[in-house]
Sequence to fold (366 residues):
Amino acid sequence: MFYYLSYFRDSYGPLRLFEYTTFRAGGALLTAMLICLFCGPLTVRLLKRFRAQAPGRLDGLVPDEFIDRDKDKTPSMGGLLIVFSITVSTLLWTVISNPLVMVFLVTLLAYAAVGFVDDYIKVAYRNRDGISARLKLIFQVLIAAVAILFLNKLPETGSRFGELIVPFVSHPVLLSSSTVLVLAFCVFVVVGSSNAVNLTDGKDGLAVGCTIFCSLTYGMIAYLCGHKIFAGYLNIPFISGASEVVVLTAAISGACIGFLWHNCHPASMFMGDTGSLALGGTIGLIAVLVKQEVALVIIGGVFVMEALSVIIQIAGFKLTGKRVFLCAPIHHHFERKGWTETQIVVRFWILAGIFALLGLATLKLR
Fold:
């Protein structure tokens, strides 16, 4: 919305700043952060009034001696604040007519809706499991498929639909000319990212802190992809209008920074599936847009670690009857090893920052 103030730059020169994506991205980050900061206390009060505490989140997953029962009193569904902040900030600072932005916003809201229903069932009916895993997965797949098909129909992105860019390889690899196979791969990336962030959300500030690094990194890549000269120099896809997605990624980062103020240990509220599914799904879709799906394994390294630890644990137990880790996801393994919650979170943040830098380095090291 503020972009249109640049139309009056002839009357007042400084208004030309609203033309620049970088300026509006900074504004989006600051706006989302301030909304989360100042609306956080009200959100906590409202969630407590509606008794939005998730019952026994870790029961059956972690031994009782490792469970902080005070956290059962902490309200969940704080992701509503994150999604609200991102949506408002993006609408204020982006070019609303950009179809890419609308696809991402709708995807964000759709994944948030799935997470909200899951969280609502948990808190309203005191059902720790929420909606069934199969039903949740079906909705995630459908939302991802629709979003990806919309991206494929856009002239800015459709020509790149079948390409696969592999880190450290200079030229794109043709994945397949089959729309079905490409769609299946892209859906896997989006749904996998959504669930990986969800699995990481087990310690105060862990998932939201790692998301800051991941979203900022993909924001930089989106900016480069939207700039013809930079894209040509780095030999990455030029996607007209992709730089506008930088405003969205900045809003995500700002919302996460603001939410972290309330979610750091000891957390005032948890984001729940409402936030984690929405953030993960949106980041996965950004990776699909900029054709850096494989790089997500590096950039989102912490999320990959968490998801793989669960897969390895389940597969190992079924095959051998023994557990590979003391507990999964892997942050619970380190908890059992004696790490404090603060140590786990801060060390994983450090890893997230290293993974983000390595991911950016792959754009040049080819």
In short: The chain is about 65% helix and 0% strand. The CA atoms of residues 56 and 69 lie 8 Å apart.
